[in-house]
């Protein structure tokens, strides 16, 4: 994987870079400390996965992480982007997904879990870590979503067909299986469209 890490906190950026370079499947690694630099680096480097902090304080053009994500996806619709943020309330996760990110991870996440998310996104399967989905434990277990159902939901929101969703899962499943997942998802989180289903799930459900 070629990785671009967009982060204005020098210590965190350099620490994560050191860890990433130890991973056998991480090849080249580029860094950017502000939004404008991120856009320039992306165009020159063409990373497989881009890690972006939402709050970028060093940018001379006042570009924050959401601006970077939207501009990158406007020019490169296939860009695979993961938000890495110190703040991960429901609204921030919602902003990131609305902007087009494939995942959102907290900065305090264990490195191994971050690598799992990176590999999943690199393979074309969006993934939200369970840490962000453990908010209302009083919610009955029958209302929880499985990890695969979260993946189906994120792919559905990105506009993929049932057949395309099935092909992107690991292991792949048929379109009828995807339809069954979608029906169960909507029933469990009391929604009738992908966007509302994601928000309802983030606000009070956790995966099995």
Task: Report on the architecture of this protein.
This protein is of the alpha/beta class and 208 residues long. The chain folds into 2 domains: 3-125, Response regulator (Rossmann fold, 3-Layer(aba) Sandwich); 141-204, Arc Repressor Mutant, subunit A, CATH 1.10.10.10. The chain has 9 helices and 5 strands. The chain has helices spanning 10-20, 35-45, 65-75, 90-99, 111-122, 147-157, 162-168, 175-189, 194-204; strands at residues 3-6, 29-32, 49-52, 81-85, 103-106. It has a 5-stranded parallel sheet, sandwiched between helices. Helix 3 (65-75) links the parallel strand 3 (49-52) and strand 4 (81-85). Helix 6 (147-157) crosses helix 8 and helix 7 crosses helix 8. The chain is globular, with a radius of gyration of 17 Å. The model is unreliable at 135-139 (pLDDT under 50).
Give the arrangement of secondary structure elements.
Blueprint: E1 3-6, H1 10-20, E2 29-32, H2 35-45, E3 49-52, H3 65-75, E4 81-85, H4 90-99, E5 103-106, H5 111-122, H6 147-157, H7 162-168, H8 175-189, H9 194-204
Helix pairs in contact: 2-3, 6-8, 6-9, 7-8
């Amino acid at each position: 994987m070629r990785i671009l890490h967009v982060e204005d906190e020098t210590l965190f950026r350099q620490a994560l870079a050191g860890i990433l370079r130890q991973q056998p499947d991480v090849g080249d690694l580029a860094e950017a400390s502000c939004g404008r630099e991120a856009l320039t680096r992306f165009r020159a480097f063409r990373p497989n996965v881009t890690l972006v902090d939402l709050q970028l304080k060093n940018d001379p053009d006042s570009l924050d992480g959401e601006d970077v994500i939207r501009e990158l996806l406007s020019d490169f619709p296939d860009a695979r982007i993961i938000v890495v943020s110190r703040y991960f309330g429901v609204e921030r996760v919602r902003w990131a997904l609305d902007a087009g990110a494939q995942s959102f991870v907290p900065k305090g996440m264990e490195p191994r879990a971050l690598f799992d998310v990176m590999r999943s996104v690199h393979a074309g399967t969006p993934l939200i870590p369970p840490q962000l989905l453990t908010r209302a434990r009083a919610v009955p277990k029958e209302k929880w979503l499985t990890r695969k159902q979260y993946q189906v939901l994120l792919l559905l929101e990105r506009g993929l067909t049932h057949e395309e969703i099935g092909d992107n899962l690991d292991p792949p499943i048929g379109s009828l299986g995807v339809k069954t997942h979608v029906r169960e998802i909507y029933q469990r989180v009391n929604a009738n469209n992908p966007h509302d289903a994601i928000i309802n799930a983030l606000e009070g459900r956790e995966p099995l």
